[in-house]
């Protein structure tokens, strides 16, 4: 018989000791998923790896054994403060530009903690909306690890955070995910949005991450498709994403990107809640995501 408490202990242990500062990309998700399958087949714990993130998205939890933890010695930290790095980023048109790390900004998602039956009502009160993730949505089911469905994760997106401030800021943002006092204080100086994430997959190994938040995020992404599902307007958004060389700490943004790829999301609003599906780089998955959205919205309307 399986130990029903084992998965919770693994997830809580990893989340409690980690700062989720990971940028989403299809390659990173696939690598993480492959690592998860390999490790779970051998032993009952996750191998936490150092990695640097690339955009907002989440990481729907320890599901993907990728955690961005940055550790620097006092000497290294002092040196970093004295010499500002040049960061290579993309502008709104997808062109590669150079900026100093005290000018370059990024959207960073930090988190978080597992949402359970015990803390669900409290989180709904703090985040300002009710939520429910059905076990099945059409042909999709909540992603499982070792036979157990992955619990949703609470996290927070920080908009336009300077690269040079990331290291010293992440811990306070992480605490603000579940602490209203810290959240309200930080809201005076930063644009921060609390999110809840869950992941689904089907038998054909399509994987979608769905994010819920109280407010629609201002998006600079290009809308490439619009459709109406049961009187709800849904949009498919396209964004340019840079792929960088990898260093021991993850993506090396001090070097020019190796390539620039497009990623896709589907978004809609319903009853004051913003829904966002991370689709990935494969535009062929847009039709699959659209069907997923139809099945999901049908369930929403029945609640």
From TrEMBL:
Source domain of life: Bacteria
TM stretches of this protein: 55-76
Record key words, sorted: Membrane, Transmembrane, Transmembrane helix
Keyword Membrane: yes
Name of the protein described by the UniProt record: DUF4367 domain-containing protein
Organism: Clostridium beijerinckii (Clostridium MP)
Native organism taxonomy: Bacteria, Bacillati, Bacillota, Clostridia, Eubacteriales
